[in-house]
Design goal:
It is built from 14 helices and 18 strands.
């Protein structure tokens, strides 16, 4: 378990601390509890290498002080891993149903590698979201382990093992209880039925999906009247529904053959990752309390729309979609992450935007109402020739563009590392100039800002 953690990078759900600093520890615990939960590894540097700088007694004392600096206190599980000359300690911080503040009144959330303080309006939204309670962990009356599909369970365990997770210490039933798929009384939870159920729609009819293909740009048939080209209702466990939804979109998607030199390449109508992310997000983050509405996938002549029931959760808004991350259904997200449907937590929207732009499409459009969230992907491609960079840039900017070509993005900090002898303000203006010239697109705000090729 520790080896797998150290192979990962600090981010949305993992924090590496070289020492047991009480203040930093308290901030990280509170931020994880207010967000998706996560794991704190004490005694390693940012590269995941042990520092031999902590002792178990010191960590235990610091942890005791850090926990009581959170109001209300946060319950954490910790484990010691003895190494030569010291130890490494891992803390598992669960997502909390309560809102946690520090003694100084700050309310923090986890934003990638940072513990970020929240403002008043965001705090109110988060408090309201937590007070609703977790629908996904509620027992579904009349259900039991018999409602789970053994083939789906075996597939989940196989993918979990392929991701390097350790074998189950206890029975499968105990594991299902630990991940919130089943209650101690043997009843299936909403999350359990959604992920592993044979026919979840018997208990949760809203959990399926509807795919519709229209011939034109409006929801009408060929004759201009109400109608469609293809309509499919999708049912089954969530992994099966997502797979079927993806296959339907792929079947209906146009593919263009592009020849570059002697190489022939097939280019789909929409970038793969962007479509996949839109679908996965719709099923992961929809509000399953809303009955009578399913996820809808609508294909038009010029666009793909994915509509998810339920407004944006917690403190999420259209303005902070790229920088922030909050799951309405954290257990669904965790299970699908173990399954491999989600590659890296909290990095989907920005990668969707990047991929659409890099393949020449307009950026996705997002629409939020109190009861739905819609993602629109447009199939138009800009085939205008790319301007020569060297004719429009100084030497620093050329180096920045080269770095973006290699890494896909650049931050202000990356640029400062690239040009350490140049002032931060000059470098900032360089990036602003590249945005004004239409070469770069600015994503995010403040500390979360980065730039990608436009």
């Amino acid at each position: 378990m520790l080896k797998q953690l150290l192979k990962q990078k600090p981010g949305q759900s993992i924090a590496f601390l070289p020492e047991a600093d009480i203040d930093v520890l308290a901030e990280t615990i509170a931020a994880f509890a207010n967000s998706e939960g996560g794991t704190v590894v004490i005694g390693v540097n940012l590269m995941g290498r042990p520092t031999d700088a902590v002792l178990s007694d010191e960590v235990e004392a610091a942890l005791g002080q850090a926990v009581i600096r959170c109001r209300p206190p946060v319950a954490v599980d910790w484990q010691q891993h003895d190494l030569s000359g010291g130890c490494v300690v891992t803390l598992r911080v669960p997502r909390s149903p309560e809102l946690h503040a520090l003694l100084d009144g700050r309310v923090l959330i986890r934003q990638r590698m940072e513990n970020r303080p929240m403002g008043g309006e965001a705090i109110r939204h988060l408090a309201a979201a937590k007070s609703v309670g977790d629908f996904e962990t509620g027992a579904v009356a009349g259900s039991s382990l018999l409602d789970f599909d053994r083939r789906v369970l075996d597939e989940y365990l196989k993918h979990r093992s392929e991701r390097g997770r350790k074998a189950l210490n206890d029975s499968l039933e105990r594991h299902l209880i630990e991940i919130g798929a089943m209650t101690e009384d043997g009843e299936a939870t909403a999350a359990g039925l959604l992920i592993f159920g044979k026919r979840p729609q018997i208990y949760l009819p809203q959990s399926g999906a509807l795919f519709v293909k229209f011939h034109g740009k409006e929801p009408r048939g060929r004759d201009g009247q109400a109608g469609y080209g293809r309509r499919v209702e999708i049912e089954g466990s969530l992994p099966r529904v997502m797979e079927r939804a993806w296959n339907l979109v792929w079947e209906e998607m146009r593919v263009e053959a592009v020849v570059t030199g002697l190489k022939r390449e097939e280019v789909p109508e929409y970038p793969r990752f962007a479509v996949r992310e839109a679908l996965v997000n719709a099923f992961c983050h929809r509000d399953y309390r809303l009955k009578g509405r399913r996820v809808e996938i609508r294909m038009y002549e010029d666009r793909l729309e994915v509509i998810s029931p339920g407004g944006l959760p917690g403190y999420m808004t259209l303005d902070n979609l790229v920088e922030e991350h909050f799951s309405r259904n954290p257990r669904l997200v965790s299970s699908l992450f173990e399954w491999g449907y989600i590659e890296e937590l909290g990095l989907g929207i920005d990668r969707m935007i990047e991929e659409m732009l890099q393949f020449g499409h307009p950026p996705p459009e997002f629409k939020a109402t109190p009861y739905s969230f819609t993602v629109k992907l447009f199939n138009a491609i800009d085939r205008a020739p790319v301007m020569r960079w060297e004719a429009n840039m100084n030497e620093r900017q050329i180096r920045a563009m080269t770095l973006i070509e290699q890494n896909g993005r650049i931050t202000n900090r990356d640029y400062q590392s690239l040009c350490p002898s140049v002032s931060a303000e000059t470098l900032r203006l360089d990036l602003v100039d590249l945005v004004d010239k239409g070469l770069l697109l600015k994503i995010g705000d403040k500390r979360g800002t980065y730039y990608i090729l436009k």
